[in-house]
Amino acid sequence: MSSHGQVWTTAIRGLVLFLVLGLTFGVAMEGSNSTKRSFDVDHDNDTFVLDGKPFRYVAGSFHYFRALPKSWQNRLRTMRAAGLNVVDTYVEWSLHNPHDGIYDWKGIADLEDFIKLAQQEDLYVILRPGPYICAERDNGGLPHWLFTKYSNMQPRTSDPNYLKEVEIWYKQLMPRMQRFLYGNGGPIIMVQVENEYGVFHACDRDYLNWLRDETQKYVEDNALLFTTDIPNERIACGKIEGVFATTDFGIDRIHEIDDIWKMLRAIQPTGPLVNSEFYPGWLTHWQEENQRRDGKLVAEALDKILSYNASVNFYMFFGGTNFGFTAGANDWGYGKYTPDITSYDYDAVMDEAGGITEKYELVRNVIKEYMEVPDINVTMASRIAYGSVILKPIATVLSGMGRSTLTRGKAITAEKPQTFEELDLYSGLVLYETELPRLEIDPTLLTVNDLRDRAFVYVDEQFVGTLSRENQIFSLPLSKGWGNKLQLLVENQGRINFNVANDTKGIMGDITVQRLSGEKQKLVNWVSTAMPLDGDQILDIINKHKSIDMTDDVLNIKSHVMSNGPVVYYGEFLVGKLGDTYLNTTGWGKGVLYVNGFNLGRYWPQAGPQITMYVPKELLTLGLNSVVMLEYQLANQKIPNIASVELMSKAQLDG
Ligand SMILES: *[C@@H]1O[C@H](CO)[C@@H](O)[C@H](O)[C@H]1NC(C)=O
Ligand SMILES: *[C@@H]1O[C@H](CO)[C@@H](O)[C@H](O)[C@H]1NC(C)=O
Ligand SMILES: *[C@@H]1O[C@H](CO)[C@@H](O)[C@H](O)[C@H]1NC(C)=O
Ligand SMILES: *[C@@H]1O[C@H](CO)[C@@H](O)[C@H](O)[C@H]1NC(C)=O
Q1: Of 99, 402, 582, 607, which is least packed with CB atoms within 10 Å of its CB?
Q2: Whole-angstrom Cα distance, residue 430 to residue 432?
Q3: Sorting pLDDT into bands at 50, 70 and 90, what band is 8?
């Protein structure tokens, strides 16, 4: 009852606010035409102008797809309370268009609701629709199915197939955005065209001009089009005629600020100076140290930037989380593949759970010197240590009911292994199976060419080793007599997001064993099985299996290694008071975490530095909650045969 009451109160408040906002804008629009809402650049006075008055912004990036919708309002309010007047977000094509012709605008994909909330919280919006966004997201936001539909698509160029698909996508996206444009009464003041295009090798001017026109078609003069480019020798490649140019840099380059402004001035002599991505922290990959940046240096750098009358956007002000399989990877062009961690804490101004940090206070104090900072009280969820959770194995991935529940569609038999894209699979696992030929030598060398990205190798369902793209390990020895059935379970660890965006997954090259003669024998006749590992499949497993205990089948007392393939572990915990919590994965190997059937993302404490996984309070319910760890390698068994995890009140990202 009381919860219904709350829903109605909220609904009525929303309605009243809607009417008030509607009246305000209505009056503005019906008044004399000279007061039409406008946002533009004054090239005489090097400033933005909002409704004819000089305007500058201190913005913060917050990507709606990195936080649960129920937390959006709280995060936006905390940003406004720091003195920001604008929120900046990318739009992720692959989220809204997961399969060809299928669109999603609900839940975490409810971009319109996000923009409405921003407006209610007194923030303007900078929209960055890409369509390529980088953002440390899988494929830089481009849907995987583009690469199934067109085998040789050249994204970010005038490839007619790419243009056609962008046109179809914008036809879905842009009409939803039009009512939110500033000139139409909404909060969107700026819309980005492409994203750091200067550093992309193609430098395709026809494509940029086409994308400008395609964006302009919907935006008209109701918001300002802009580009963002890295300040280096390629900056001019990203500049588009008739589109406002901005640049981006973090505290690591603040000592070069005069040279950076000069580079921007060289492509655009007048107008306000803008840093569209001011990095108060940085992104982190698995198998490296957590990237932290000092708060005092951030505050000093902000002060410096604002002293030039520049406008600035923090990237990120609030980073959030790469839930599910949405984290991307980098290659930086050196052939060294490095996947991003699940947390997008970024050492940003707010932490991963939306909390205020020391950096936040320092930044707010600087903003106060330049802008009016509203008096808003910020509320933070409590962080609760729910304690230890015992987990038991309830299903195996390579066999039995576990395997059939996790499989999607029919397995495909073909001479070559099918890619994830050929299977129309966003992420998760693909199982590749074939019969081994009679081995001529003992041992022989198994080689998997162009593996993307990690393969767990089994012979007759016995684990024999791991191959890894990031560590450049593509071969392992196989002994004669181990068995006949070869299984390669391949994990997509995130498609490359920076610069290129066509990192298809699975096994692209030949798979061979060595002969007595030294020649390589190609293995053919592969059965490819898609395993998306989505939340619905996990709920299905829980329903069918939660009363099962496979401890005796899958583990022996001496070993906690997943010697027969990945295992689904299940546990329950009681919640008496709702709060945020952090699941500590210490002692586990590598896998995927689900709470109440929601995929919280990849964990990998053996590589680090991320040790804890953020579990937002919005996912929890009072009473019983479920944890599933789909573990590929190793269970934490402090006590023999009893696996467990700990729910803690603090994040540990520096392990
Ligand atoms: C404003 O412009 C519209 C059409 O653009 C016109 O119909 C209207 O009369 C104008 N209003 C004023 C106050 O000039
Ligand atoms: C911009 O500069 C011009 C000339 O220097 C001046 O007349 C005008 O008032 C300025 N505009 C604003 C909005 O300050
Ligand atoms: C900043 O703007 C003010 C007001 O227009 C002006 O007086 C000042 O010279 C500007 N500072 C810089 C560094 O451009
Ligand atoms: C914020 O909280 C303080 C203390 O609870 C209260 O005195 C103040 O009025 C609140 N301010 C706003 C803007 O709600």
Answers
A1: 99
A2: 6
A3: very low
| Packing angle, helices 295-306 and 358-368, rounded to 10 | 20
| CATH 3.30.2160.10 applies to domain 33-368 | no
Residue 346: count of CB within 10 angstroms of its CB: 29
Question: In which element (H, E) is residue 432 found?
Answer: strand 429-435
Determine the Cα–Cα distance for residues 346 and 400; give it in Å rounded to an integer: 41
Would you state the torsion angle of the CA atoms of residues 602, 608, 610, 615, taken in this order, to the nearest 10 degrees?
40
Closest residue by Cα to residue 159 from 194, 207, 205, 216: 207
112 has catalytic annotation: no
Q: Is 466 in the pocket of ligand 3 (CB under 6 A)?
A: no
What the block records as the tokens of 57 is: 């912004």
Beta-bridge partner residues of 522: 512
Tokens of 197: 């295009």
List the beta bridge partners of residue 43.
none
Q: Which of 155, 87, 156 is nearest to 123 (CA)?
A: 87
CATH fold of the domain at 409-531:
Jelly Rolls (2.60.120)
- Hey, which CATH number is domain 387-394+534-648, 2.60.120.260, 3.30.1490.20, 3.10.180.10, 2.40.40.10? 2.60.120.260
Q: Do domains 33-368 and 409-531 have the same CATH topology?
A: no
| Domain range annotation of the chain | 33-368, 387-394+534-648, 409-531
User: Which residue, judged by its Cα, is nearest atom 7 of ligand 4?
Assistant: 377
Pairing of strands 188-192, 224-229: parallel
pLDDT for 559: 65
Q: Cβ distance 130 to 90 under 8 Å?
A: yes
Q: Per-residue pLDDT tens for 606-640?
A: 999 999 999 999 999 999 999 999 999 999 877 77
The answer to whether the beta carbons of residues 195 and 134 sit under 8 Å apart is yes
Does the pTM surpass 0.85? The reply is yes
User: How many A from CA of 36 to the centre of ligand 1?
Assistant: 10
- Which ligand has an atom closest to residue 44 CA? 2
Q: Which of 277, 491, 631, 646 is catalytic?
A: 277
- pLDDT, residue 395, reads 93
Quick one: pLDDT at residue 27? Answer: 42
pLDDT tens digits, 22-61: 444 444 444 455 568 999 999 999 999 999 999 999 999 9
The residues pairing with 58 across neighbouring beta strands, listed in sequence order, are: 312
Specify the DSSP element, H or E, that contains 246: strand 244-248
The owner of tokens 């067109």 is 150
Nearest CA among 655, 426, 398 for reference residue 535: 426
Atom 14, ligand 4: residue with shortest CA distance: 377
Q: What are phi and psi of 619, to 5 degrees?
A: -85, -15
Which of 33, 35, 36, 222 gets mutated to test ligand 1 (max ligand atoms within 8 A of its CB)?
33
Q: What tens digit of pLDDT does each residue of 252-306 get?
A: 999 999 999 999 999 999 999 999 999 999 999 999 999 999 999 999 999 999 9
411: closest CA among 426, 429, 432? 432
Q: In whole angstroms, what is the distance from residue 393 CA to residue 533 CA?
A: 16
Looking from the CA of residue 307, the nearest atom of ligand 3 is 13
Q: 202, exposed or middle or buried, with CB in 10 Å at 0-12, 13-18, 19+?
A: middle
DSSP, collapsed to helix, strand or coil, labels residue 344 as coil
Tell me the two tokens of residue 290.
């957590």
Whether ligand 1 lies within 6 angstroms of the CB of 151 is answered as no
Residue 291: Cβ within 10 Å count: 17
In this structure, are strands 387-396 and 567-575 parallel, antiparallel, or unpaired? antiparallel
